[in-house]
What does this fold into?
Amino acid sequence: MRSKILLACLFAVAGSTLQTAHAEEGATLFLQNCAACHGADALGVEGLAPPLKNESLWRRLGDSASAYIAGIVTGGMSGQLNVGDQEYRDLVMPPQTHLPSEQLATIASYVLQKINGHPVSVSAEQIEAGKIEPPAHKALQALRQKAEDENRTTLAQARN
It folds into this structure.
């Protein structure tokens, strides 16, 4: 019995160490590949790139958050985007498909989990699927708009 408890403790410590290493890798990859446009703090750069630190957006997207961010990194994004009172016109984020799928999954999971405290992660398989068949920008914008509309409805109901 003691050996089973000891073994369970060892697995727990090893798992915690792996999670820490994965988070550190995510932070490093984010700084190397995303921070120039989205800021080292993920708060965005006014007029250039929207904030990725947006806990309410990711929460509203729910289980769709992983599909949304995987679609953005594999298909890119263009057009107009409104975040709070900031408008991003002629937004162009190119697909990041030059990065290995595992790295993109690590970055996307880091944005969701560590930056925004959202429990959803992104798998390398989701990234691979997006590389093979990137989602249309309009589909990604519609997913985000649906989450924004639901938020406005919720806020309006709360006021009444």
